[in-house]
Amino acid sequence: MENKNIWNKYGDQEEKELVQLGEDYKTFLNRGKTERECVTEAVALAEAKGYRDLSGIIERGETLSAGDKVYAVNMKKSIALFIIGERPMTDGMNILGAHIDSPRLDIKQNPLYEDTDFAYLDTHYYGGIKKYQWVASPLALHGVVVKKDGTVITVAIGEDDSDPVFCITDLLIHLAGEQMSKKASVVIEGEDLNLLVGSRPMKKTDEAADKKEKELVKAQVLAILKEKYGMEEEDFLSAELEVVPAGKARDCGLDRSMILAYGQDDRICAYTSLAAILDTEKVDKTACCLLVDKEEIGSVGATGMTSRFFENTVAEIMERTGQYSELGLRRCLARSRMLSSDVSAGFDPTYAGVFEKKNAAFLGRGMSFNKFTGSRGKNGSNDANAEYIADLRRIFDEANVSFQTAELGKVDVGGGGTIAYILAEYGMEVIDSGLPVLNMHAMYELSSKADVYEAVRGYKAFLKNA
Questions:
Q1: Which of 133, 182, 316, 397 sits 20 to 30 Å CA-CA off 92?
Q2: How far is CA 282 from CA 38, 291, 403, 465, in A?
Q3: Confidence band of 94 (pLDDT split at 50, 70, 90)
Q4: How far apart are CA 425 and CA 382, in angstroms?
Q5: Is residue 399 part of a domain?
Q6: 383 cis-preceded (ω within 30 degrees of 0)
Q7: Quick one: 88 and 126 in the same domain?
């Protein structure tokens, strides 16, 4: 069995839609470089399509009925969107799930220091990265600073053309003999990922200031932060600041067939899932799009998939529709079907040796299904049932959606996981699905516009017909 390149299956109108979807996707990536920013953008897009905030509905004591569209936000880092279906919720839901966190560098809580006329911010890397990729590149700073009085300061520096950028320095090749002999995993140590933020000392105004203030470069940085954001050094204690690659998502290739951008794992699946549900109206079974945080570090914490946010939100919706009972909630979750949408490793001819070609995902051949993920002996995987896969084949074939199946590399080479196994614990049918990506977990990841278009079509077919 061989899946073919899908570009030539499109007519003029479909190509026009594909190009526009690519532009919309790039806009989402540019506006959503952190999980908070993704949620903010998702809320804006949802409200423009008539979705209402579930918390307000609960507060006002309103009810929900078939056709209503609502969303719920968890700590500004996760979001769930629902279209209430015609059938009882105890018949289950059709769920699209993805994550919106991506590998990055986080600023530590006590980060600012000066060393030899340079000011730095200490960082701690988040998720699986190749540390050496993060040096000598333009970087941006995104996030929030929350002051003791509750004031929230939004930070985004390094994206506008007029903004400064930041960087992590690297050792010049002329002096790097010892460094070049190290293993790639330790060429750059985690504690050496120090973000350079300044080199200009504060002007000395009087003798007293000269004696009191010795770290004048650090003082100048603090003065800028105070002037621009009203921020004191102690406010780093209650800040969430993320270091990400600076710059916008770009078309890649002379034919503009691909997109090169930061954070496509897994915002490519998050956006296509979101676009699918926002383009869906009435449904038979209740439809859900679930976008969560913390997948890159094990789905832990209050905003990760292992929290009770999703279960609690479903319970609230069942209450608003007059269907809630503890047994009813259990039946709803157990009878649901889910596409756990996460990226798959796209086949790269340059590194063909780590792939088993017959069971690899290829860019430009449609969305990808992984019956199982995990590593080596399927360790830590969800393994989808054959009956479920057969029904999905029917749904996608009837909708003329191109798809492929894949594994994450050769059996003994590596592997990875998604949020699939967590939802499967409810007893629902779950399969890993998503889009193939090259350069996964690098600063700039590569995807195919055709796969983005096909994924939205596929996710819509799933929400309507699963």
A1: 397
A2: 25, 21, 25, 12
A3: very high
A4: 10
A5: yes
A6: no
A7: no
